[in-house]
Structure of MFS transporter:
Amino acid sequence: MATGYVELLRARHAVRLLAGTLVGRLPNATAALAIVLFTRAEGGGYTLAGVLSAVYGLSNAVGQPLLGRAVDLWGQPRVMLPSALLSGLGMAVFALVGIDPLPLAHATMVVAGFFTPPLEGGLRALWPSVLGRSDRVHAAYALDAVAQEVLFTVGPLVVTVLVAFRSEAAALLVINVLGVVGALSVVVSPPSRLWRSAPREAHWLGALRSGGLRSLLGAFFFVGLALGSIAVAAVAYADDRGDGLISSYLLSALGAGALVGGVVYGARGWAGEPETRLRVLVAALAAGYLPLALVPAPATMTVLAGVAGLFLAPALACAFVVVDRHAPTGTVTEAFSWLVTAFGVGAAAGTAVVGPVVEHGGTAAGFCVAGAGGLTALLVLLATRRVLTAPAAPRSGDALGRVETDDTGSVESGSGTGFRA
């Protein structure tokens, strides 16, 4: 199992791109926690902290696909480095000025969120040109999904340590400096500098003119909703048992399940069309969420949470392949960024919806929201089966993009031919 991943990571630039992207995404992965901790330290209430965090999240949801489109048009370095600097500057002003005056605090959240560089979509656009072979790209997508789980587990821990040893403001500043360094590491690398998107057809909808992509985004909005609701329902479950640590056990088990599932999924090749496989994986994901509504004893609940997480990373990895297949020519970074947005907005909606549900219907009802989200995601994929079918023919130069020659005239990577699963 490990051999395939070792071979992947031995590919030139692979470790640098993966590590740089993960470090560059630290500000986004830790923003919700860091903003709340800083706002509370400045004397603000939870309501203000929640509003500021929501402003950041909504601005990020708007900015990702727009910046992704800009990357497809003008290349990664010209977009990602300036946006990383602007995002870091916005958060730095917030850390140095605080929450007073409020209009400035809100403005900094808009800037920091909107200009978060689309490193996630950018990395997925680079993998085909760096790795070449389709089996390696599939494994890279799975490794990417696993890395996300690690990032969202380790990131909050880093913030907590920085707060304990220094301050909330220092945590904001350090995390965002690291984010800029990570983005810089990616955009000065040869694959990022030489990568160019395939020529695109001018259309105001951009990547969204693909019916298959719209179907996928609709489904993963509800997958995000399910995950967002589980986070809140887990806290309610812990409160019912009188032990706040139980929620961390459940969420850790969910993440551990995703890690295991992603590693196993990416370690082997899969026959058949990924669109069909995605429906199976989302069905398994929904089936894993449903038993959580039984709310058994903590030990059993922790096991169920681990099982529920098993199919998350595989579903994400398969979705990355499907996005690549259905993104219109020249829109691959934008398309991946739309998936990030759909998933994030769904998670935010889940946290908003499940609160009143728990208050009126109890903890079991909160976990029912997660099950309903998973089932709805499956229904979307089934209802849109006709548009989410295999592309009729490969589009030359699409996912792989074009790779320019360096100063010596040699080609750094890639062949300029389209990659298709």
